[in-house]
Write a structure and sequence with these properties.
Blueprint lengths: L1 H30 L3 H13 L3 H13 L7 H13 L3 H13 L7 H13 L3 H13 L7 H13 L3 H12 L1
Helix pairs in contact: 1-2, 2-3, 3-4, 4-5, 5-6, 6-7, 7-8, 8-9
Length: 171
């Protein structure tokens, strides 16, 4: 029984190292401009559950780096990473829906994604969400909530959040 448990633990640890290893190797390949290798390694790592690899794949598809631009693939990988808690992917996916890039424009979906990203401590998502509440865009206008979100954005290091928070405090 101990051998089985030890084997399972070692398998989990070894598997986690392979996931991280593929991600690190993909970053190195990307730095070396070996984008085909980077895409292969990011794909392998993403399939194994690494949300950062999924995010980087989405960026490559969105920007056409090493692959043809493919917003559908970008959306697929942003969604996969966002569902695994990657706030940057939730933000970028929210931007796609807000701007109607590669998807049908849907401000309500964008708000949901910005909320998820903000909940995952993404400063820009908190800022975008704050703007929506301040302007009453696709949500009921709520200056108090906007102020709270601008402060959170500021606390997370986003200067525009600090500037808007300061402006609201002057009113």
């Amino acid at each position: 029984m101990k051998r089985i448990v030890v084997g399972i633990i070692l398998g989990i640890l070894f598997g986690a190292n392979l996931i991280a290893g593929d991600f690190e190797l993909a970053i190195q390949a990307e730095k070396e401009k070996n984008l085909t290798k980077a895409i292969d390694l990011y794909t392998k790592s993403c399939d194994a559950g690494n949300n950062k690899s999924c995010h980087n794949l989405a960026l490559m598809y969105e920007n056409g780096e090493g692959v043809n631009k493919d917003y559908s693939k970008a959306k697929e990988f942003y969604t996969k990473a966002c569902d695994k808690g990657n706030g940057n992917s939730c933000l970028n996916l929210g931007n796609m829906f807000s701007d109607g890039v590669g998807v049908k424009q849907d401000n309500i979906k964008a708000i949901d994604l910005y909320t998820k990203a903000c909940d995952n401590s993404n400063a820009m998502a908190c800022f975008n969400l704050a703007l929506s509440y301040y302007q009453g865009e696709s949500v009921k206008q709520d200056t108090k909530k906007a102020k709270t979100l601008f402060k959170k954005s500021c606390d997370l290091g986003y200067q525009d959040g600090c500037d808007n928070y300061a402006l609201l405090n002057q009113k």
